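cache lookup: miss for this entity combination. No prior model stored, computing from scratch. Input as submitted by user K.M.:
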Amino acid sequence: MTTTGKQIFTTLESDGTLTVEVATSEFAEPKGNQVLVKMEAAPINPSDLALLLGPADLENAEYTDGKIVAKMPEPFNSGAKGRHSQRLPVGNEGAGEVIATGDGDMAKALMGKRVACVPGTAFAQFAIADASMCLPLGDVSAKDGASAFVNPMTALGFVETAKMEGAKAILHTAATSNLGQMLVRICQEDGMPLVNIVRRAEQVHLLQDMGAEHIVNSGEDDFMRQLRESIDETDAFFGFDPIGGGQMVDHCFKAMEQVAVSKMSEFSRYGSNQQKKMYIYGRLDLGPTILTPSYGFGFTLSGWLLTPFLQSAGMETVTRMRQRVLDNITTTFKSNYTKEVTLEGMLEKDAVLQYRQMRTGEKYLVTPHG
Amino acid sequence: MTTTGKQIFTTLESDGTLTVEVATSEFAEPKGNQVLVKMEAAPINPSDLALLLGPADLENAEYTDGKIVAKMPEPFNSGAKGRHSQRLPVGNEGAGEVIATGDGDMAKALMGKRVACVPGTAFAQFAIADASMCLPLGDVSAKDGASAFVNPMTALGFVETAKMEGAKAILHTAATSNLGQMLVRICQEDGMPLVNIVRRAEQVHLLQDMGAEHIVNSGEDDFMRQLRESIDETDAFFGFDPIGGGQMVDHCFKAMEQVAVSKMSEFSRYGSNQQKKMYIYGRLDLGPTILTPSYGFGFTLSGWLLTPFLQSAGMETVTRMRQRVLDNITTTFKSNYTKEVTLEGMLEKDAVLQYRQMRTGEKYLVTPHG
């Protein structure tokens, strides 16, 4: 017996036509340790947007009821040829009620429960999920539990990564995002010094109100001086950046090196011996990353993604992280949403143009049943 | 008792005036495990040029006997403010005869011997060196032993790094340099697959004559296809690049990812799980490194320098590497020189304009005593 419901699909044709639409799908019976979740809430995360919309021209797209047809510009269309003509479901995570299960014990134990899950198909009325990745929410509402995975585990993953690599402090750019605010709270709880880079005065105030100690405003003229000062105070030679393109990573490396050089007693043609590391974990800016030759050879730039991190961290660490999220889901790991939309509402022009900007405090929650 | 001799110094003033000149120096008596080496031969390595000349305007410089006065353009002058007004000696390595020693046993054992050394002041008639870093050359001439350190240990260091990190093959750009040719021979001896990227047809022939198996010509229209094919054949997801600026590293990452994606059974929005790593170890191009967002998050770009590598590799590895160099100094680790120059000859316009181009097969050897 299958279950019928609505689901969002995104399809990119080789000629650059992107179609995003609400369609009717048949959801198969769950097998083994799978569960079928009636999705009640799913956040629109930056990590969903690359697949859902990418850098398509949404200003000039055609919007009809529950459907967008837009043009994907070059070089992005050619760069995405791996997905050409594939009708792809979207939505990393969400929460809802388990309404059917496979015959595996883990799955059966979740029957009738409210869970957070990571199906990768969360923008839908129903989703098949692995029981092992579901988090039973108990009294926590679907809305409060919808973002229990991506942001909380990523923010915790940053702190775990820093500790594993022996970093004394963390630097974070675009620091007022939902994820950034979680990171502020986690670092406060763990006593990990955190340098927050933001770009507007009101973002400085937002983080100050949270009790953040080191806040640097890239919109101010003395940004580099502020940044050096914060690095000097914290020893933050290790950071995470969701912007990707442009020179933010370069600025961070440069400031780190200037702080390290200022502590050296004599000139070295090769720069300081201080190892400097930055991870890029997002692409808010799709332009190229620019690295200038101004900090010697003691730097490492790497990509950071949640799934490979969790695979390398091991089951024990992951279990501990998940428990911490569950215990603090309405406090440390709380997400805030500007607006709730249905699946159709998610594809309306005003909504799309707002949430694709990924601005601070403008996060959307999808409620597929209403 | 001091020893008097000629030595090259480079001085950059804060107004951007670079002066490189042959001057007379007093060399102090060696102490402890120091030795005083009468320098007979010293190579001009790319790693010397950054300090010696940097990106100064040498076309329009003033050349007088044993002296160059040139202008350092911005932003390089400001970027080098750590060295402003300092009169710096130059020359990483060379070879010569030990004519005086401190009273340490290691030093005394070298008295009268011909050694290769790494004083950092090799462009001089005499140099103080650490006995522990000297390599006794036995019957090997000073000319043959002059380049016993930087290139051989770097090329060996690449293979050691690859093995430590579990890489199955190595990719190398600008692969016909003296260092690149050593790497070809080492990889042949060690059975390590090597992808060589060159940019001209004659460089392809040079490496073919050496028996190199995988050669890719970036000057040809189907460069990316050649590169993908070589990566596919060797699994070279790990490489070293002395160029630094521009998009060569980006091309390598892109080709690596395309090969990895071609082996995937289904599309992933995050790209392949294949870890891709490139090390930048030089700056033949002083422009910024450009990284496009076209290979997901499974990449790492890092700087590589010999000294920190040797420190992390440990004494046992370093001793084994040095012995291998000494045993094969006229074969595997042989360097070729276009021209020999005196200290004064090294500062003549024709010479400077030639060796600063760092072209294949145009390496200079300095013979400080004429």
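stored under new cache key. The interface with chain A takes residues 50-51, 79, 82-83, 86, 88, 244-245, 250, 261, 267, 269-270, 273, 280-281, 283, 286-294, 296-305, 307-308 of chain B (CB under 8 Å).
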